[in-house]
Amino acid sequence: KFSDRLNKVASFIPRGTFFADIGSDHAYLPCSICLQDITAQAIVGEVNEGPLQRARETVSDNHLTDRIDVRLGDGLDILQPGEVNAVVIAGMGGSLIQSILEKGRLRLKGVSRIVAQPNNDERNVRSWFSSNGYVITNEVIVEENGFLYEIITGDKQAEGQTLSERQQLFGPRLLEHKSNLFRKKWERELMKRRRIIDQMQRAKAPDVSKIAIFEKESLWIKEVLE
Ligand code: SAM
């Protein structure tokens, strides 16, 4: 069975899109999209040889070599400006996604949509979106193998979007609905912060400013879950 997480990511790529999947590993996502939509085309980027080989194999096993181009390289370096309309970056830490976007900023010319699925530090992605004219048009949480993943879609729009610190942490669209998975995620995050605060307080020289940040966030979480 294909991954629920990647299926959901795929649902944010409109039919007929020419998109890039950066850090694709097996290339399951672009192959699944191109098998379902004969008008879709993709460029796959991988920085590591092993995953690159796996991507090439999946693409050729599925007879998609004419529509999926697999390239070796770091982040967005593999793209020429204007080549694709959308970019997917899934299954990495939020700060790595942010740094890939920042480093490749000038290669995003013509990219009207970015779909990001950070495994953590989601706020780094949101903060990059809001500083670079991408408005968050959709956010969802999916559960797979006991993990909760956020999928964040940003669309380039002239007016842009400013986000408060809370919106960056929780997600402006996720805050509008507060789904069951959203509650589950933030109940877990609250427990995590309680544990961390507890550990930090027992340290020989507690870092009071760090503790204060976790306490402030814990308060926000409690308010949001009310
Ligand atoms: N995107 C797939 C998914 O969501 O299932 C695979 C995620 S996998 C955990 C992360 C992949 O990103 C690895 O194959 C790794 O080689 C690749 N990667 C990490 N840093 C990268 C970078 N700077 N540029 C391109 N690929 C990168």
Automatic annotation (TrEMBL):
Name the record gives this protein: SAM-dependent methyltransferase
Organism: Lentibacillus cibarius
GO biological process, one term: methylation
GO MF annotation: an example: tRNA (adenine(22)-N1)-methyltransferase activity
Superkingdom, taxonomy of origin: Bacteria
Keywords from the UniProt entry: Methyltransferase, Transferase
A family per Pfam: TrmK
Gene3D superfamilies to which the protein is assigned, alphabetical: 1.10.287.1890, Vaccinia Virus protein VP39
